[in-house]
Design brief:
Number of domains: 1
GO molecular function, one term: acyltransferase activity, transferring groups other than amino-acyl groups
Strand content: 15-25%
Number of strands: 5
Shape: globular
Helix content: 40-55%
Number of helices: 6
Structural class: alpha+beta
CATH architecture: 3-Layer(aba) Sandwich
Protein name: N-acetyltransferase domain-containing protein
Domain N-acetyltransferase: 1-147
Pfam families: Acetyltransf_1
Length: 160
């Protein structure tokens, strides 16, 4: 299967699909919730990458976002179940985190052990949130978890 990784702003993304992406982030326990508006804004800013298959079908996506100064985040790495274990997730991570954000501090939070393994294979290091600079933690809270659904989902994950 031929897969292309492109910036989502360079291809038409159906508003209904943006809604579907948001619903997936709410339902998938390994993803932080992203509202349709946040996804739309991220696409328009050029911070969303998609993996496209035949007929430009979206197979997966990843979001990158600026946190503070030279700190960036990677979020919502998702590959549809029928396309997993084909290297698509890694294919999204490499341009999003390794190439685009070279020489930057990159933060990626996940409870998904498969994603953790891929990140470690790309030389990401595990850190405790408290090890991050205070301004990074504050900006993460204000920009990524201010939405009540995001905060509730985060608290649900932490209480497990």
């Amino acid at each position: 299967m031929r897969v292309r990784i492109i910036n989502a702003k360079d291809t038409p993304v159906d508003p209904g699909f943006v809604q579907k992406m948001s619903e997936i982030t709410l339902q998938d326990k390994g993803l932080a919730y992203r509202s349709p508006n946040l996804i739309k804004n991220s696409i328009q800013a050029g911070f969303f990458l998609v993996a496209l298959g035949e007929s430009n079908k979206i197979l997966g996506w990843i979001e990158k976002y600026k946190i503070w100064e030279d700190w960036w985040g990677l979020s919502t790495l998702y590959v549809f179940p029928e396309y997993r274990n084909l290297g698509i997730g890694r294919g999204l991570l490499i341009p999003a985190g390794v190439k685009d954000l070279k020489n930057k501090n990159i933060f990626a939070a996940t409870t998904n052990s498969e994603v953790q393994s891929v990140l470690e294979g790309l030389n990401f290091k595990k850190v405790v949130l408290s090890q991050l600079p205070l301004m990074v933690r504050i900006n993460l809270l204000l920009t990524r978890y201010l939405n009540i659904k995001s905060l509730l989902k985060l608290l649900e994950v932490r209480s497990r």
